Every structure is written in C-alpha cells, then in structure tokens.
C-alpha cells in the first residue's frame, strides 16, 4: 500500500510540470499583458516596454519559465502584481475560506447524494424515484451563479433567513486560529462566532453542492441498480440473508466503487464552481483571488493558484484510488 | 413416502409493457423425493434456469408472472411471506449457479461469504462459524482451507470457486439443492471432479438434488430420474436407465444421439437435432418440437399432444418405437 502511494505521489511531479509549461505558454499567449492591465489608461508602448523589463517579461518565454521553475522549487512563486505581496501569503490567507466552502459543499453532496441515489434505486419507478430523477436533471442544468443569485435573493434578501454575503458578520468578535471560521469558533469556544459563520456558509455551500449532488445521486442510483441485478446479489438472496445484510454487505459496498470515482472527478468541477459561487456571495477565497488575477493578468498569482488547484485535484484522485484499494481487493494486487 | 418438492403446473411469463407476454415456462410439473437426484435437461432457452429461479423465488421482482404451485414438505412456497422464505432459503433449500466467478461477491472474503450463512441460519458466533467454514472448505476438497478463508474470489481458480459455492449451499445441510448447470463454466477435467464431489456430498448428507443441465452425459452418471424439457414444457420423464435404454420422445432420442458413444463404431456421425429453438410452434395448438421432429405427422402441427403417464411421462403424438 505504501509503495502504491509513493509511486502515485512521484507521478504527480511530471503531471504538474507539464501543466505548468502549458499554463505558462497559454498565459503569455493571451492578448494584453500585465503591464497594459496595470497601467490602464496611461499605457503607452514605451511605458509598457519599460514595465515589462522591470517585470522580466521582455525575456524569451523559455528563459522566464526556467527562472520561474527555479524559484518555484524553493516555494517562491513571486509577488502578486496587484498587491505586491508574495502570492503564497495571499493564497495562505484565502485558502481556508475556499476549503471551508468546498468541503461543506462536498459533504452536502455526498451525505445527501448517496442515500438519495440508493433510495431512488430501491424504490425504482415509484414517485420518490421519479421526483429524484427530475430533481437531478434540473440540478445539473441550472448554472451555479444563477442558482447562487436565486438562493441569495429568496433566502437572504426576501426572507432574511440567511446573511446574503461574506463569511462572518463584521460585528462579530472572532479569534483566528486555523482560518476556518466555523472550526475556529468551536476551538475557541466562541460558539456565536461559529454559528454566525455557519449561517453564512449555508447558501453558498448549497449553491456549490447542487451539481455534484445531482451527479452523485444519478451515479449512485445507476450503480445500485446495476449491482442489485448482479449474480452475487442473487446468490446472497439464495442464502436467505436478511435484507439489511444483502443491502449493506453485498449491494452498497460494490455500488460505491463507481461513486467514489465520481466524487474524485467532481472535485475538479467543484473548484471551478467555487470561483463563481465566491463571486456571488463575496466569499473572499481563492476564487476571488483567481478572478481578479485573470482580469488583471497577474501572472504570478494565476500560475500559483491554478497549479495549486491542479495539485489538489491530483491528490483528491489519489485518495479516491486509495479508497478503491480499500473497498476492492482486486485493485490491491495490481 | 411423500414428496420433498412438488412443482405443479408452474407457469412463468415475462411481461413487457406494449408487448405480448413471453411464456418461458409453460405448465411444468414434477416432484422430487427426499434424497433423490432428479435431472432437468434441455437445450439452451428451454426454461431450465427460469424454472429453478421460480422455485427459489429469485426471479426479478418485476416484469414476470408466476403461477402454479410449488410445495416443499407440503408448504406452499409461493404463499410464504418474504421473511418466511428467507428463513428457508439457504437452510432448507439452496442453489448453486452456473458462473462461479460472478456468483461470488468480489469485494468480501470467501470466508465471510460462508460464515454469513452459518451465523444467519445456525445461530453460530463468529468463531464457531469460522471453524465450521474451515471444515466445509475441507469437505469440498479445497486444500489449505484455513488460509482460503481470507482469500477473495479472484484469488481462487474456477474450480475452487465452484467448490466454495457448493460449500456455501451445503453449509446448513439443506434437504434440497438445486444446481443450475454448475459445471458449464469449467474445464472438462474440473467438470468431472465437481460432479463427483456433488454426487458424493448429496449421498453423504441425504440432500435431494435437482440437477439442471443441457448435457445428457451429466445426467447419465448422476440422476435417478430425468425430466426432459422442451420449449417450457416437460416432454418426457423417466427413470434414468429406462430413458437411456429406450427414449420415447423424438427430442430425447435426438439428444441421446448427439452424445458421442465410446462403444459406437469409430467415425460414426453424431446425429444432431436439426433446426433451432427459434423454429418452435406454439404449444397451444401444436407440438412445439414438430418443425424439427423427424417423426412429425400432420397432427403434430395442429393438435397439442396430450400428456400420457404410463410408467413414464410422455407428451408426443408419434413416439419413437411406436411404429
Ligand atoms: N429476465 C427475463 N426477461 C425476459 N425473458 C427472460 C428472462 N429470463 C429468461 N427469459 C427467457 O426465458 C426463456 C428461458 O430462459 P432460461 O434462462 O430458463 O433458459 P435455460 O434453459 O436456462 O437456457 P441456458 O441453457 O442457456 O441457461 C428464454 O427464452 C429467455 O429468453
Ligand atoms: Mg440457464
């Protein structure tokens, strides 16, 4: 098992390298560079050229890349062109917000999705199933930001049940320990701060969870139906096992294999969705950093954020493969 | 002696919305005495598996209609509640399936797949069940049984998997075992071993066996009585020696003719039954086998042959040797 993990971790390196090359080349092929964006109205060709020299952007792209790589290996991804701060500092500050949002969304999607998908399969063709299928169709079809605005309008603005934006009310005294607002409140026993953060989290987490939830429901349902028709479930029934045993030991364990793959793939989409959700709810996480960086062509920040996203994606999928190895004995030998 | 299993006028129709029902089993009746080995023989698609699944009540929940009576020890299985049936499955009657690989759960150990029956029906605790499972694996001829308990199905050979399935089916010493082509997925040499094992085990335990096969050769060494199934109906039933000595139904005759005989002249052509099940006529107004039958008369395509029971059961207008 350990060898499997190490081997997979080593595979991460070339993946990230390749991605960084592509990213580097792609960014620099975009029209308009950071200099033009920074200078705004005052941009003249001379001033742009001057600034490019300062930023080192006048050098050939391969040279720039090698320099970037040399520094990146030491953990230095440069300073943001917008704020002048090291991008790693910026990211460290914004990361907890995004993780909190994504984890909450993923939790909702998994905790609701698997049972719902299972129930839909079990009561196939009944109203519960039909309703669920229609719900998931709507769920995947509605754009995240549109759903975000709807939720915000109804439950925050019209009904006033939840705060419309931000991570915490401004008048709340909160001590920061980990940067995860809900968790910090629990750790420092500032439960009102925790509660406040939680109410802020609800709407954006639901908006972000919708698509992965719908996908997980559908995959679970299909997978459970597939397994219920399999020969070994028939064998289990032929042994006269209690229905609960058949369900848990024989149906669910097998049915969860494709679901775990789906969860891994969904984290990629989740990161993309987080950018949109953060914008709607003024969340101030990585998504906000990224959106700004794209607008202003902040190369250092863009590079760092995208590579981080890729790293997370790869690691989550490694986790998925590990979960596979735990559930499915056939994987271990390979 | 009263019968252990009595199947009476069993009909299974598969229903699809917007399509006429397709009748897979069309009024099958047979019985099994305690400890007896009964064969159910016929070519692919004649309804052997559907019959056995109907007896076990393991057909899909939807999309089919089962009528008729299935009694075990006089109890009507079709009338039992789901819970009552689960009490008896695995304990009083159990089943072995055709494909040992797909019939075992790939993600749990062979040991657990055996012990779960023991804990369920014999009230054993985990430890006792494990000890008993070792015993069972040993009895079905799996070497090094203690180690095999922790193996997963994919780590066993095909023959060993089928042995494990037999161990599961016999774990609670059921009085009836249904084996649905238990050897077709195996190599020829392994087939013979598994058949020998089954024969020996049912003899030891007094379990009655319903042996389902398309291969009369399998029946020859094993069964006391044989039911020949064609197009969802039993066309002939006789005691084994009777059947092999003098097959009366042209279909049985054809099946026998397609077995190579060691005592036949070398180079002799095997007589195959011409045509395929697709040529069947509806039983409602003809003999289903008529289009493929060498003995067919005009009446065969227009009148359903009535079942005749004298010494053996036969459903034929013009049996072999009637002249
Ligand atoms: N679930 C099902 N839905 C519809 N038709 C079915 C279903 N299962 C079986 N049948 C049909 O019932 C008929 C009998 O099938 P069955 O599986 O009993 O054949 P068999 O005698 O066991 O053949 P084989 O030797 O190939 O296993 C076939 O025509 C088959 O197409
Ligand atoms: Mg079959």
Automatic annotation (TrEMBL), chain A:
UniProt xrefs under PANTHER family: DIPEPTIDE TRANSPORT SYSTEM PERMEASE PROTEIN DPPB-RELATED (PTHR43163:SF6)
GO cellular component labels: plasma membrane
Keyword Nucleotide-binding: no
Membrane topology: Multi-pass membrane protein
Major location (coarse): membrane
Name the UniProt record assigns to this protein: Peptide/nickel transport system permease protein
Example of a GO biological process term: transmembrane transport
Domain called ABC transmembrane type-1: residue spans: 95-320
Transmembrane segments: 101-121, 133-151, 197-219, 255-276, 304-327
Keyword Membrane: yes
Gene3D superfamilies in alphabetical order: MetI-like
Subcellular compartments: Cell membrane
CDD domains: TM_PBP2 (cd06261)
SUPFAM superfamilies reported in the protein's UniProt record: MetI-like
TrEMBL record, chain B:
Membrane disposition: Peripheral membrane protein
GO biological process, any: peptide transport
InterPro entries: AAA+_ATPase, ABC_Ni/Peptide_Import, ABC_transporter-like_ATP-bd, ABC_transporter-like_CS, Oligopep_ABC_C, P-loop_NTPase
Gene Ontology molecular function: ATP binding; ATP hydrolysis activity
Listed CDD domains: ABC_NikE_OppD_transporters
Cell membrane among keywords: yes
GO cellular component: plasma membrane
Pfam family, one: ABC_tran
Classification via SMART domains: AAA
Keywords: ATP-binding, Cell membrane, Membrane, Nucleotide-binding, Transport
Domain ABC transporter: from-to ranges: 5-256
SUPFAM superfamilies named in the record: P-loop containing nucleoside triphosphate hydrolases
Protein's cellular compartments: Cell membrane
Family stated for the protein in its record: Belongs to the ABC transporter superfamily.
PANTHER family: DIPEPTIDE TRANSPORT ATP-BINDING PROTEIN DPPD, OLIGOPEPTIDE TRANSPORT ATP-BINDING PROTEIN APPD
Record-given protein name: Peptide/nickel transport system ATP-binding protein
Organism: Pseudonocardia oroxyli
């Amino acid at each position: 098992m350990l060898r499997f993990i190490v081997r997979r971790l080593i595979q991460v390196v070339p993946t990230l390298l390749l991605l960084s090359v592509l990213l580097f080349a792609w960014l620099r092929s975009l029209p308009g560079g950071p200099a033009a964006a920074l200078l705004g109205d005052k941009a003249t060709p001379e001033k742009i050229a001057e600034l490019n020299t300062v930023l080192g952007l006048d050098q050939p792209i391969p040279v720039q890349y090698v320099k970037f790589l040399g520094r990146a290996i030491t953990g230095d991804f440069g300073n943001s062109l917008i704020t002048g701060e090291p991008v790693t500092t910026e990211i460290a500050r914004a990361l907890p917000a995004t993780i909190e949002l994504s984890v909450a969304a993923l939790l909702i999607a998994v905790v609701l999705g698997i049972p719902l998908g299972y129930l839909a399969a079990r009561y196939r063709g009944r109203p519960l199933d039909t309703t669920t299928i229609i719900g998931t169709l709507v769920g995947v079809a509605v754009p995240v930001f549109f759903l975000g605005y709807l939720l915000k309008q109804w439950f925050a603005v019209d009904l006033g049940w939840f705060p419309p934006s931000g991570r915490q009310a401004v008048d709340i005294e909160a001590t920061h320990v980990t940067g995860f607002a809900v968790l910090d409140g629990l750790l420092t026993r500032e439960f009102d701060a925790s509660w406040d953060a939680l109410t802020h989290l609800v709407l954006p987490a639901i908006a972000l969870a919708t698509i992965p939830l719908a996908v997980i429901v559908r995959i679970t349902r299909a997978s459970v139906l597939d397994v219920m028709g399999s020969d070994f479930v028939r064998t289990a029934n032929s042994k006269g096992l209690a229905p609960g045993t058949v369900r848990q030991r024989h149906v669910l364990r097998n049915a969860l294999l494709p679901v775990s793959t789906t969860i891994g793939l969904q984290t990629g989409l989740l990161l993309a969705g987080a950018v949109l959700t953060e914008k709607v709810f003024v969340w101030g996480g990585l998504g906000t950093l990224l959106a700004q960086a794209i607008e202003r062509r902040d190369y250092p920040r863009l590079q760092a954020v995208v590579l981080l996203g890729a790293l997370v994606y790869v690691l989550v999928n490694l986790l998925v493969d590990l979960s596979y190895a735990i559930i499915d004995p056939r994987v271990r030998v390979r | 002696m009263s019968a252990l299993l009595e199947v009476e006028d069993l009909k299974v129709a598969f229903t699809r919305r917007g399509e006429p029902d397709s009748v897979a089993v069309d009024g099958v009746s047979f019985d099994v005495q305690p400890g007896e080995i009964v064969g159910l023989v016929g070519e692919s698609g004649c309804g052997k598996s559907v019959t056995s699944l109907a007896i076990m009540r393991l057909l899909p929940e939807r999309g089919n209609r089962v009528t008729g009576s299935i009694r075990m020890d006089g109890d009507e299985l079709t009338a039992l509640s789901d819970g009552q049936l689960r009490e008896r499955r695995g304990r009083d009657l159990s089943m072995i399936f055709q494909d040992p690989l797909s019939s075992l759960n790939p993600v749990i150990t062979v040991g657990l797949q055996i012990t779960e029956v023991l804990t369920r029906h014999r009230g054993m605790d985990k430890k006792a069940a494990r000890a008993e499972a070792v015993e069972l694996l040993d009895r079905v001829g799996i070497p090094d049984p203690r180690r095999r308990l922790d193996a997963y199905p994919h780590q066993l050979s095909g023959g060993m998997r089928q042995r494990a399935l037999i161990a599961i089916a016999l774990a609670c010493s059921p009085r009836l075992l249904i084996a649905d082509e238990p050897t077709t997925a195996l190599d020829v040499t392994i087939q013979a071993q598994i058949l020998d094992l089954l024969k020996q085990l049912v003899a030891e335990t007094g379990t009655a066996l319903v042996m389902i096969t398309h291969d009369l050769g399998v029946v020859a060494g094993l069964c006391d009585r044989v039911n020949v199934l064609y197009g969802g109906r039993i066309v002939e039933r006789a005691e084994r020696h009777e059947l092999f000595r003098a097959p009366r139904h042209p279909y049985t005759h054809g099946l026998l003719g397609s077995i190579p005989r060691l005592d036949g002249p070398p180079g002799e052509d095997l007589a195959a039954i011409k045509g395929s099940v697709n040529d069947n006529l509806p039983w409602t107004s003809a003999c289903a086998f008529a289009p493929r039958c060498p003995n067919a008369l005009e009446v065969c395509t227009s009148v359903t042959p009535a079942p005749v029971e004298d010494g053996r059961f036969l459903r034929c207008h013009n049996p072999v040797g009637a002249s």
